[in-house]
Amino acid sequence: MKLLSVNVGRPRSNPWKGLSLTGIDKRPVDGPVAVADPGPKGTGAVGLAGDRVYDVKHHGGSDQAVLAHPREDLDAWEAELGGPLANGAFGENLTTLGVDVNGALIGERWRIGPDVVLEVSCARLPCATFQGWLERDGWIKRFTQAARPGAYLRVIEPGEIRADDPVAVVHRPGHDVTVELFFRAMTLEPRLLPRLLAADALPEEDRELVRRRTAR
Predict the structure, then answer these.
(1) What is the torsional sign of CA 112, 115, 120, 121?
(2) Residue among 130, 96, 152, 127 at smallest CA distance from 25
(3) Contact present, 105 and 135 (Cβ < 8 Å)
(4) CA distance 186 to 192
(5) Are 68 and 99 in contact (CB under 8 A)?
(6) DSSP-assigned letter for residue 20
(7) Residue 27 pairs with which residues in a beta bridge?
């Protein structure tokens, strides 16, 4: 298991959400990239140095510090969409190889390289910017139905990472709430929502959302 690339965003216009800019245009970078906890959501800060988000209401902050997608999923989408998808094409910071990103447990911890430890916090949910960026009508529906969402991670131990760094799972919690299960519960299968509360590392924002939805 390893990183194929570390991807940092380039600001570009965002006509798809009515915002001035987006950071979804992620490109692989050479050399080490510093990783640190960005602090609370609302500032635009994320975990990788040189990157940021511009939809500060919905993105960024400690629970969405780093976004990972497996290269295997990009390859599968290439076959379905009939065109190439470079590392970073889904707006991910980390393009991985051999890592079961969607099967990872909420609260699972990964050591990347010698220093950095990240913790899986939740699944990536598709938005209008993602659809517009890929220039695919109906992409949100198609991506949602596939339930291969990729994972957000929070920073537990800061440091530096780079392409080809090994990835090792160093902790797996004792529940069955995976990234995929989280995604399915939050989208097309709300009957699964109560199961999410078994994950202690679930972001508080999502925990409150689950409670509101299940109280109806």
Answers:
(1) negative
(2) 130
(3) no
(4) 8
(5) yes
(6) E
(7) 8
